[in-house]
Amino acid sequence: MNNKIIREAVPVLLLSLFLFLVPGCSAIKPPVTNQYTLNGFSHQSFNKPSRALSILVNKPETVAGYETEQMLYINKPYEVGVFAHNAWIDPPADMLFSLIVQSLQSSGYFFAVASTPSSESADYRLDTQLIELQQNFLDKPSVLEFAAKIVLTKVSNNNIIASLLIKKRIPCPKNTPYGGVIAANQATRQFTAELTRFVIRTVDKTT
Question: Which has the closest alpha carbon to 135: 52, 62, 70, 197?
């Protein structure tokens, strides 16, 4: 009698164990085999102003979804997916931070471009928010969608003097994650060029 009960109980126990383990297995992340970087920024130079000016660039903030290295895509309306084996080498906002600083430095317009809050007081402060960076497969070919908001503040009175929302839609050369990476670097190059022109044009009007 006891042996019969045991034989009947074993399949039930095995099934319960399987159902218990399946959710755990679904939470396991596949290994990342390809890591990519954003390094496209504007090298355009400008004439120096009549007096030495400095600007503090704060680290960009992000909307939900861009705090990690995950690469996002869309292939269904209103649904955002994550590439399984492909990722950014750093969170996009961290890489964008460096590109903004390098673009402003390359412009030659500012006497100093600071990137740490502990730096000496600057004349202007630039704040950025990364709003969108994703590969949209609803378009054929796929399109890299990029959006960021920039805010320029005069430090002496802490007044916002200008803000701008910059959006880019760059066709991807291939419908692959790497195709999105190529388009993303083109987007950051265009973004930093537009950002730099906007900042310098605004500063010229206020000095």
Answer: 70
Average pLDDT over residues 165-186: 98
Q: How many domains does the chain have?
A: 1
Tokens in use for 135? Answer: 């590969």
Identify the pLDDT of residue 206.
87
Query: What's 29's DSSP letter?
Result: P
Which residues lie closer than 8 Å to 28 by C-beta, 6 or more apart? none
Give how far Cα 168 sits from Cα of 51, 148, 196, Å: 34, 9, 16
118: domain range?
A: 32-206
pTM of the complete model: 0.84
CATH number of the domain within which 135 lies: 3.40.50.10610
Residue among 45, 74, 55 nearest 143 (CA): 74
User: Is residue 71 predicted with pLDDT exceeding 70?
Assistant: yes
Amino acid at 118: S
Nearest partner of 116 among 59, 54, 154, 67, judged by Cα: 59
